[in-house]
Every structure is written in C-alpha cells, then in structure tokens.
C-alpha cells in the first residue's frame, strides 16, 4: 500500500484522460504521488442537482451496474466513508445470499444469511458520489467538456496531451505522467502507431450478448422479501434477466440474450422475451408495475484485451487503465472492480520505486496479471456457447469448464457451494477455491451418483418451482 506523497519529487503533474470510474479511481491514487492531477473529460459534467442525468460518454449507465464486494472495499479504502454516503443517498443494501433470488442451472438456490453485503445503486449515483469526493481533493483539477485529441511526445516518453474545449483552439498540457482511461474506444493503439510504435495485439472473445433494460417504479404496497432477482443464462439456453434495485425506489430490469438472441426494445417483444425465461417471476413483475423509461439496448459486449504488457517498446511516462486495456462481457459485473484493482496496482508500483523510469512497462505487466483472473472467468463462461467467436481455449480451460459445470450444478443443493460461487464472483476468493477438498468431494459424489447431468433447458421451458425463503 502506498504512503502519502511517497518518494516522487514535488511539483509533479499527472494528466488522466477520461473521468469515468477507471479515470477517477486512478486519479485518486495519483494524488498520493503527484502535486497536481488534471482529469480531462470529454463530456460536460453537471452539478450535483443534475446527478441523475445520463451523459453520452457512458451509455452503459442505462443498464444495471453492480459494484462487486471487492470493488466496494477498494472504493471505501480510497474514499473512507463513501459507502455510508451511498447509503445516505438511498442506495439499497443487499445481502447477496439472503436478499437475492438466484435461479441456477438446476433451480433456485437456498437463501441464508452471510457477510456478502454491498450497496446497489444506479451507475450515475455511484459515479457522482465518487466525483464529489474527488473534487474535494485540492490536488485535483477537472477539465470537463474537453476532449484529448492527441499525445505529446519526445519519441522516448509521452510528455503531455493536446486538448480541445468546444470550438476553442487546441491547447497543450505538459505532464510527468499521462494515463489513458478513455474506455473501450481508446485511441491509444492508433496514437502509438502515429508515434512510430507497434500497436498492441488484441484478443477478442465475443458471445454476441445483448442487453435490453428498462427502469420501473417499485409499487409502495408490493409485498416481497428480496432485493434482487438473477435468472442466470445457462447454455445451451440463451436468455436471462435481472431485477436490480436502485435509489429512488426504482428497479432496473435488464434482459439479456446470448448468441445474437438480442432482447427486443419494443414493449410487446420485451414482455414476450421476459415470459420466455426459465422463471416467470420477471414477466409477472413487469406486468404489474409502472415503467419510468424507454427500453434501452446495448450490444457491444465482447471481451477485448489489449496486450500492452507484451510490447517490447512502449513510451515512458504513459499508462493505460480500465476498459481501455481490457473490457469484459458486462454480464459478470467485473469492469468497475477490475478498474479499482488496477488503481491499487498503480499505487503499489508508484510506491515501490523512487522515480518514473520503467514505470510504464512494469505497470502494464502487473496490470495484466490482475486482469488475467476476471478475463479467465468471463471468457471461460462465454465459451460455453458454441456461437461464441474469437480467442482460443486450452485443454486445461476446457477441463476447468467441465469441472465448474459440476460445481454450478451443486449450487441449488449446497449453501456452501453457492456462497463460494458468490465469493469468487465478488472477487473475494480466487477460482482455485473451487478445488478445495470439501467441494471436490461433493463434485465427485455427484458424478458417481449420476446426478451430474445438466437439465439442458432451452428458452421457454420453465424450471421454476416455488420461490425459496430465507433459512435462519
Ligand atoms: C451494458 C454494460 C453494463 C455494465 N455493467 C457493469 C456492472 O454491472 N459492473 C461493473 O463493474 N461493470 C459493468 N460494466 C463495465 C463498466 O461500465 C466499466 O468497466 C467501467 O465504467 C470502467 O470503465 P472506464 O472508466 O475504463 O471507461 P468508461 O466508463 O467507458 O469511461 C470512459 C470515459 O472517457 C471519456 N472519454 C473518451 N474519450 C475521451 C477523450 N478523447 N477525451 C476525454 N475524455 C474521453 C468518456 O466520456 C468517458 O467518461 C458494464 C458495461 C456495460 C457496457
């Protein structure tokens, strides 16, 4: 963990391109090591009263956005007290084993109490709460409604950025370090080429998953003992859905379809898609409640990893973070937490050395190690569908996938397995925990008693039985 204002000399400036989650968490870390951190954000960032307004740079904010437990812990470390601030802004509390109805491969999983507790809220509230805290940091300067149009370089290092605000002429900002946090559409591969460097190779794994989301008011008189519903998508079936509670007494209901089985955005089609899920609960819920928004679609969900860690030449004083390095199929909820882990990795790298020489390459290599686990989880899951394209899966990964299928089949019978599954999903534990002897024994027992065959349900076939109650 870095100590405040560690070894790097004073009067140093860092520029962060992009003021979304990865950019803001990175900026907060940089304020421990640099005197001045300038965040350049293309969107116009509005004042507090308009915090619920969507902005063009993050079209994903229309959709359910879960911050995993590991991500929430890092957020609280970087901004002490922020989880309480989210609670004060009406973010709901969710105990993931007790308050969430989870339809697994073989049915509803048992509900029970645990310490897997987070706050759920809209992406906008989360972003706005972080921005408020960051803005209070006197080392931070925002350049909102300002676009980075290029990098400044002396051929060895990146020395700053070129920016443009509205119709004004371009301006240059010089900096000791420049960070790219501009997301999936990052221009860095193009900029590197223009500077005479090789662009990074990229690995793309695409399950052609689409989202359709709509916001609803939660009826005041509704009787329910849960805060979220997850109807997971199980190959070869292609459909799933989520009910996700956010501030202001609202639900975001998101339907997902894999293999180009995109959920429709017209009223009747959306309802029909919900009716075809493995449980009627989302369909029955939607029928009774009042929509607050149109239906929003999102289809750019491919996993895309840029291999900056493999480049033999990379400019000094330049870093790439967040979705600009690796974007995931969002259905596994890993993007913001991986961005938070990336910020912590940068903190460690900066704290370990007294100057910036070699930082860029060392950081990208370290970041790649951090990304490798969520990447393996997301792509491993996506390879369950024969329609998934790109990348390669090794024999080890295929065997691991078969083993995990057996683990997932135990989820509805074993609270221990379900809790472990959620702990891995929330990045509290590594996937190797699935090989603990106690879990291994349960898997072997299942295989040898021939219970390990999947139900092979397709869309429209309902596995649902009565909903589980919480067991004390
Ligand atoms: C549909 C969907 C659902 C998701 N759900 C989840 C979830 O449940 N949980 C989760 O953890 N993650 C989720 N994610 C992923 C999550 O949104 C991202 O991982 C997270 O926002 C971090 O991204 P980022 O900050 O790197 O980039 P982004 O959030 O994409 O932000 C990039 C920023 O850079 C700015 N920018 C771009 N170009 C320039 C430029 N030239 N100059 C200045 N500024 C620029 C943009 O305006 C934007 O603000 C989801 C993503 C999608 C698409």
From TrEMBL:
Annotated FAD-binding domain residues: 121-348
Pfam family, one: FAD_binding_3
InterPro entries associated with the record: FAD-bd, FAD/NAD-bd_sf
SUPFAM superfamilies attached to this UniProt entry: FAD/NAD(P)-binding domain
Protein name: 2-polyprenyl-6-methoxyphenol hydroxylase-like oxidoreductase
Domain of life: Bacteria
């Amino acid at each position: 963990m870095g100590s405040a204002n560690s070894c790097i000399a004073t009067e140093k400036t860092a520029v962060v391109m992009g003021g979304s989650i990865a950019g803001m968490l990175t900026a907060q870390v940089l304020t421990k090591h640099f005197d001045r951190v300038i965040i350049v954000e293309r969107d116009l960032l509005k004042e507090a009263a308009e915090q619920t307004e969507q902005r063009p740079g993050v079209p994903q904010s229309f959709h359910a956005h879960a911050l995993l437990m590991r991500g929430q812990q890092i957020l609280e470390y970087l901004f002490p007290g922020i989880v309480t601030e989210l609670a004060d802004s009406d973010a709901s509390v969710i105990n993931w084993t007790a308050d969430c109805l989870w339809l697994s491969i073989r049915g509803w999983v048992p509900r029970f109490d645990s310490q897997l507790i987070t706050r759920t809220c809209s992406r906008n509230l989360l972003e706005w709460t972080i921005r408020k805290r960051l803005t209070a940091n006197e080392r931070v300067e925002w350049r909102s409604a300002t676009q980075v149009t290029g990098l400044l370089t002396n051929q060895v290092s990146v020395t700053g950025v070129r920016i443009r605000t509205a119709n004004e002429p371009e301006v240059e900002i010089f900096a000791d370090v420049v960070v790219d946090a501009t997301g999936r559409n990052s221009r860095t591969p193009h900029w590197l080429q223009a500077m005479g460097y090789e662009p990074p190779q990229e690995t793309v794994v695409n399950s052609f998953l689409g989202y359709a989301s709509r916001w609803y008011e939660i009826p005041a008189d509704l009787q329910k003992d849960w805060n979220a519903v997850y109807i997971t998508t199980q190959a070869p079936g292609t459909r799933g859905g989520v009910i996700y509670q956010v501030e202001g007494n609202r639900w975001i209901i998101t339907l997902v379809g894999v293999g180009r089985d995109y959920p429709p955005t017209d009223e009747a089609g959306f309802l029909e898609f919900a009716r075809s899920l493995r449980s009627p609960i989302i369909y029955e819920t939607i029928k009774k409640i009042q929509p607050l928004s149109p239906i929003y679609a999102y289809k750019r969900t491919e996993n895309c990893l840029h291999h900056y860690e493999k480049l033999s030449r990379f400019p000094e004083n330049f870093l790439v973070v967040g979705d600009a390095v690796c974007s995931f199929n969002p259905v596994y909820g890993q993007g913001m937490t991986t961005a938070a882990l990336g910020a912590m990795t940068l903190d460690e790298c900066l704290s370990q050395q007294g100057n910036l020489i070699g930082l860029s390459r060392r950081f990208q290599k370290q970041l790649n190690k951090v990304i490798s686990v969520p990447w393996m989880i997301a792509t491993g899951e996506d390879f369950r569908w024969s329609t998934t394209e790109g990348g390669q899966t090794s024999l080890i990964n295929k065997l691991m996938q078969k083993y995990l299928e057996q683990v997932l089949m135990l989820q509805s019978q074993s609270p221990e397995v379900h809790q472990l599954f959620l702990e891995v999903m929330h990045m509290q534990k590594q996937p190797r925990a699935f090989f603990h002897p106690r879990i291994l024994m349960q898997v072997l027992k299942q295989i040898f008693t021939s219970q390990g065959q999947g139900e092979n349900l397709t869309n429209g076939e309902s596995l649902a039985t009565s909903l589980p109650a919480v067991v004390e």
